[in-house]
Amino acid sequence: MIEMFDVWKTYPNGVNALQGINIKINRSEFVYVVGPSGAGKSTFIKLMYREEKPTKGEIFINGFNVDRIKERQIPMIRRNIGVVFQDYRLLPNLTVYENVAFAMEVIEASKSKIRKRVPEVLELVGLPDKLKAFPNQLSGGEQQRVALARALVNNPSIIIADEPTGNLDPDTSWEIMDLFEKINFSGTTVVMATHNREIVNQMRKRVIAIENGQVVRDQQRGEYGYEN
């Protein structure tokens, strides 16, 4: 599903954000990416959906070498990857329905398919009655649910999440994690960067730990292992 071979990322300022990463993530896995601030977690995540490109090495997503594909092929890759961010990144002038529908419009889905699919995915994340609401009318947890719905609406094979509970209170964080686990049980691969020690330690999924741009630990049913 996701493979990295000797991946390096060096930024223009000379910082080696990642050094010699070799990782394989299989279909339907749930993987936490942990490590101290500045360790390289966000770069690791961004390489998967081609927000960043590696300086050296190869990355394969669903069999495609993401560094070698043409620009016009990027939407095809991203169609199979849903991304969820800490700050939600909802469009403030669009309703909940319109925010989720936008992800389908980008891939030129038909209007009939959009009308059918958007309510379905909002039902899945527990917001069937919020279609006409705007982001500023929602709580943080509700906004993150909309962001998750947007990531799910095109039935991606992979969900990538960068600190998705970072702005949420503990109870709401667990509600969001329950949704991620439900999505994973349906067969979707989940890769999540997080600083949330309690969630990682209780859920006991695979843990990839990064320090100074290198993978220092890769454990099945792993624990967080760092001070926050």
From TrEMBL:
Any one Gene Ontology molecular-function term assigned to this protein's record: transmembrane transporter activity
UniProt KW keywords: ATP-binding, Cell cycle, Cell division, Cell membrane, Membrane, Nucleotide-binding, Transport
Lineage: Bacteria, Bacillati, Bacillota, Bacilli, Bacillales
Protein family per UniProt: Belongs to the ABC transporter superfamily.
Biological processes annotated in GO: cell division
Function, in words: Part of the ABC transporter FtsEX involved in cellular division.
Membrane topology: Peripheral membrane protein
InterPro entries xref list: AAA+_ATPase, ABC_transporter-like_ATP-bd, ABC_transporter-like_CS, ABC_transpr_LolD-like, Cell_div_FtsE, P-loop_NTPase
Domain (ABC transporter): residue spans on this chain: 2-228
CDD domains, per database record: ABC_FtsE
Domain of life (superkingdom): Bacteria
The encoding gene: ftsE
PANTHER family for the chain: CELL DIVISION ATP-BINDING PROTEIN FTSE, IMPORT ATP-BINDING PROTEIN
Subcellular localization, as worded in the UniProt entry: Cell membrane
Full protein name: Cell division ATP-binding protein FtsE
Gene3D superfamilies: P-loop containing nucleotide triphosphate hydrolases
Organism of this sequence: Tepidibacillus fermentans
Complex and partners: Homodimer. Forms a membrane-associated complex with FtsX.
